[in-house]
Amino acid sequence: MAVERTTKPHEPTEDFSGDIDVNNDVPRRKDLERVAELPVLDKDGKPHAFKSLYTSTSDERSRTLIIFIRHFFCGNCQEYLRSLSSSITPDVLQSLSPPVNIRIIGCGQPDLIPMYARETECPYPLYADPSKKLYAELGMIRTLSLGPKAPQYMQYSLPSAVVRAIYQGLKAGRGAFKGGDYWQVGGEFILEDGEVTWCHRMKNTRDHAEIPEMRRQLGLDGATPPLRKTFSSGIRRSSSQLGRKLSDRRKSWSRSRDRTEKPSPDGSMMERVKEDQAAEEKSERRSKEEEKTNDAMGNSHGFTK
Predict the structure, then answer these.
(1) What single string gives the DSSP state of each residue in 163-197?
(2) What whole-number distance in Å separates Cα of residue 210 and Cα of residue 203?
(3) 167: left (phi over 0), alpha (psi -120 to 50) or beta
């Protein structure tokens, strides 16, 4: 069945609170051949043909689940990968017959991949498609709709997700503008023997296929997986660190303004660099001390990480 786009790639659907009408028609073999050579970038910016993500290098059969996420600062997608990674591990996937590999593709710049891997603790290879050509050719849409309800995989509130995203953006500095298209949503595709056997396209910004459904499609049990550890203490730390980060930024901007107004004599550049490094180290030590304090308070009240 042919892939039919419900919206034009560069004309976002009007934002509203419901689901966008999008189909889950499986791309035909000729559709896949058309995108096979399109490049995806690894964390070093090295291009790889899309087909290399799902083509086996041995004679053994294998399946590949390719997950298209939104921009690299999307808290919903980050939460999805945390839940997926805790429920579906590489060891479990390799024990299946045929074994399964998982690949993740985002629409931001590749230099944010290491940050994304740390934040999600995702054990699966991550790639970037900043051109979004794969998204468009495989029928994924653009929308900012949240959808009618929160998904099962979300373990914290939307405001908490926003706080984490802002904090990550501040930490990224100039990288905050490299996360990718905020309108772009993704989907999940299972491939075997050069064909797509199942797919799900997101209807809103939180509409990833739920974990029990993914387990069923991969041949695992359909039961709801055990809950992973929550991130409540991490969110508390992010909130306090966000305020401290903003304060540090204001001080840094103030110092920069002073230096612009009062040029320093030659040879003082290294001194300013050392001052900035000392300030950063002091802020980092303060963060670690507060983290220990928050963990101690959380444990005394029965919180878990």
Answers:
(1) HHHHHHHHHHGGGGGGS--TTB--EEEEEETTEEE
(2) 13
(3) alpha
CA distance 196 to 100: 14
CA dihedral 23, 26, 31, 33 (to 10 degrees): 150
The rounded distance, in Å, linking the Cα atoms of 146 and 76 is 10
Helices (H), the chain: 29-35, 75-87, 90-94, 113-120, 133-137, 158-172, 211-218, 232-261, 269-300
Q: How many residues does the chain have?
A: 305
What is the distance between the alpha carbons of residues 277 and 283, in angstroms, rounded to a whole number? 10
The helix/strand/coil state of 75 is helix
Q: In whole angstroms, give the CA distance from residue 28 to residue 286.
A: 55
For residues 142 and 239, give the distance between their C-alpha atoms in angstroms, rounded to a whole number. 30
Residue 259: phi and psi, rounded to 5, are -70, -35
Q: What are phi and psi of 190, to 5 degrees?
A: -105, 125
Residue pLDDT, tens place only, 191-242 = 999 899 999 999 999 999 999 999 999 999 765 555 565 544 344 444 455 5
d(CA 203, CA 74): 16
Could you give the CA distance from residue 171 to residue 69 in angstroms, rounded to a whole number? 21
Give the pTM: 0.70
* DSSP structure class, residue 206: T
Name the phi and psi angles at 254, rounded to 5. Answer: -65, -40
- State both tokens at 116: 């994304």
Residue percentage of the chain with pLDDT more than 70:
64
